[in-house]
Amino acid sequence: EAGVAQSPRYKIIEKRQSVAFWCNPISGHATLYWYQQILGQGPKLLIQFQNNGVVDDSQLPKDRFSAERLKGVDSTLKIQPAKLEDSAVYLCASSLERELFFGEGSRLTVL
Amino acid sequence: GNSVTQMEGPVTLSEEAFLTINCTYTATGYPSLFWYVQYPGEGLQLLLKATKADDKGSNKGFEATYRKETTSFHLEKGSVQVSDSAVYFCALSGNQFYFGTGTSLTVIP
What we know:
The complex is a heterodimer. The N and C termini of chain A lie far apart (about 35 Å). By secondary structure, chain A is mainly beta. Chain A has strands spanning about 5, 10-15, 20-25, 30-35, 45-50, 55, 65-70, 75-80, 90-95, 100, 105-110. In chain A, strands 2, 4, 5, 6, 9, 10 and 11 form a 7-stranded mixed beta sheet that branches. In chain A, strands 1-3-8-7 form a 4-stranded antiparallel beta sheet, with no helix packed on it. The mean pLDDT of chain A is about 95. By secondary structure, chain B is mainly β. Chain B is built from no helices and 12 strands. Chain B is globular, with a radius of gyration of 13 Å. The model of chain B has no long low-confidence stretch (mean pLDDT about 95). At the A-B interface, β5 and β10 of A face β5, β6 and β10 of B.
């Protein structure tokens, strides 16, 4: 069974630039999550989708972050404009029966 | 609200030593509890889970028991290997998943 796919694995940008991350969840998983993991910390939920609807985006900085899940499958997370403090690993996960499956993450460095 | 508190690291052990990483939680209702492991450069992987009180999750020699009376889910392994070097996260699932801050383990030969 294919796992959660994410791209790009690494991205380096300058502050005020924009960046987009892509995620393809495990086939059949209706719930998709984006987490932000800052070095030395646990994952922090940014947004949770159920099919193509948003379940929870209370911790998403909506002035600069946006996410969508077209057709209830793939998802894209965008940051515009990026700040230095956005440097982190962005993890995508999908879930089935209360178990999370993570992708390898996209590491963002903002200079 | 829901939260997870886990033992601060980093932890350094010699090969074949006994490992305990403490995890306590606060939760409303009856959450499931998890330990996830993150190897260098990789995403998080489920290590083990327990879905109700007194359940014991186990995998790859690691164990953790869901203790409702002490609100704990401590991770243990009797004899660690160099390949166990990773960051370990305790987590619970309520209306969403809540993660601890992670404990870094280094096992030296």
